[in-house]
Amino acid sequence: FFQKTLTAVKNWFTLFGWSKGQNPVSVPYSLRRDVCKVQATSSQDKVFKQNREKDTKTLYDMLFHLSGQLLPDITSSQALVLDPTERMLQLHCQHSTLLAFLKCQGAYLPHVMPEFLLEPDDYKKWIEVQQALQKVYEETSEIYSNKHLLILKDSVFEAMSKRAWTDVLLQIYKVFVLPHVFSRSVTDQFSLENVQNMPRIKSEPLSSNIYSPYERTILTWLNKHYEKNRKTVWKDCQKGEI
């Protein structure tokens, strides 16, 4: 189920997540790799930087295309600093900003930590920094607790990162794409005759703390067509016999 969900997510964002045609998405690899524009390291790299920036599409380009908004203090042409540790801290800060931005839009991501969105090597650097901070605070007798520090093995981190990026994309779809779904009054003969047999889903905004109004619209549509096809496929079957 998870693999099918992942494939559907990759296909949709590859086809429709960008402003100028298709752009292949791999989860989590291209999202982690192309999170920022490259930074030139010398004058000889200027041509490479210009060509790369022209072709590279980042997560922030996708967000701007789907939402029309830029994240606070982050631009679509953001470049990374050169120092590895500073770069890791910059990315961690940007991922924190991303998650906070999505949550403000209605995304549900309490289980996704910014460090789960990092590259494996950057995640290891982040762990090292946290452990170094712990040691410093212990030596100075200051109160510091890393009881929530989750140290993952390489294979576990990759699985966690893939799941985290998948959930981020799903929530981006939820808060920026699903609102385009609208409900239309249905008066066809099937609906009039069988509405009493369909599971009822309330459309009021406050009727659910799980599904948004747009998700409930889709669920209603799915229930309607399930009921219709149930009678076609299992003509003489009662619901309890299916």
Structure explained in plain terms:
This protein has helices at residues 2-16, 29-33, 46-55, 59-67, 84-104, 120-139, 154-176, 189-194, 213-233. It has nine helices and no strands. The chain has two domains: 1-39 and 56-180, no CATH class; 184-234. It is mainly α.
Please sum up the structure shown.
This protein has helices at residues 2-16, 29-33, 46-55, 59-67, 84-104, 120-139, 154-176, 189-194, 213-233. With 242 residues, it is an all-alpha fold. The protein folds into two domains: 1-39 and 56-180, no CATH class; 184-234.
**Count of β-strands:** 0
H-E string:
HHHHHHHHH
Termini distance? 22 Å
Per DSSP, the total helix count is 9
Helix/strand class: mainly alpha
Provide the number of structural domains: 2
Label the overall shape. Answer: elongated
Spans of 5+ residues with little confidence (pLDDT < 50)?
39-53, 186-190
% residues in beta strands: under 5%
Could you give a short account of the major beta sheet?
A: none
Q: Write down the overall mean pLDDT.
A: 79
Task: Round the Cα radius of gyration to an integer and report it.
Answer: 23 Å
What percentage of residues falls in helices of 4 or more residues? 40-55%
Please give the structural blueprint:
Elements: H1 2-16, H2 29-33, H3 46-55, H4 59-67, H5 84-104, H6 120-139, H7 154-176, H8 189-194, H9 213-233
Helix pairs in contact: 5-6
Which terms summarize this structure?
mainly alpha, 242 residues, elongated, single chain, CFAP47_dom, 9 helices, Calponin homology domain-containing protein 2
